[in-house]
């Protein structure tokens, strides 16, 4: 009889462990197959119909609608190039060039993936509206206070993430296609 009493307890423990393991696996991004380029991470398989079950669960929980594999890629940066978490109390220089794409956007989000409100009511920048140097490279200042040139406003909350969406990107979901891909650098300039 004692074995039958232990069965419900074992089932509860097994379910709790399974839910805990699944929740932990979804914390660092949507499933497997992440590709890291500098501070930026992308999941190229997430827009395909054969995504892994963890990615599918992450999308269901977040309610996110990923770009399809033929539409483009989303790159997420949670840290600067040195690995320090992005913090709105600091100023950043985002510079270089973006992945080859027909069009791209760069936006500031909170750590939960929601757009960050700011006093300037500017939530992102687009590839068609940037000032560029003679080589086609750009320099974007991400800061609380307005800056001349390309400025991406930050709000009063501290932690944030950057999302770079490259539409009709000239890459495929094959991992080796990402070798040598250009992404903007993210350099912290100073903190207040």
UniProtKB/TrEMBL annotation:
<dbReference type="Pfam" id="PF06742">
    <property type="entry name" value="DUF1214"/>
</dbReference>
<protein>
    <submittedName>
        <fullName>DUF1214 domain-containing protein</fullName>
    </submittedName>
</protein>
<dbReference type="InterPro" id="IPR010621">
    <property type="entry name" value="DUF1214"/>
</dbReference>
<feature type="domain" description="DUF1214">
    <location>
        <begin position="71"/>
        <end position="169"/>
    </location>
</feature>
<dbReference type="InterPro" id="IPR012038">
    <property type="entry name" value="UCP009471"/>
</dbReference>
<dbReference type="InterPro" id="IPR037049">
    <property type="entry name" value="DUF1214_C_sf"/>
</dbReference>
<feature type="signal peptide">
    <location>
        <begin position="1"/>
        <end position="26"/>
    </location>
</feature>
<keyword id="KW-0732">Signal</keyword>
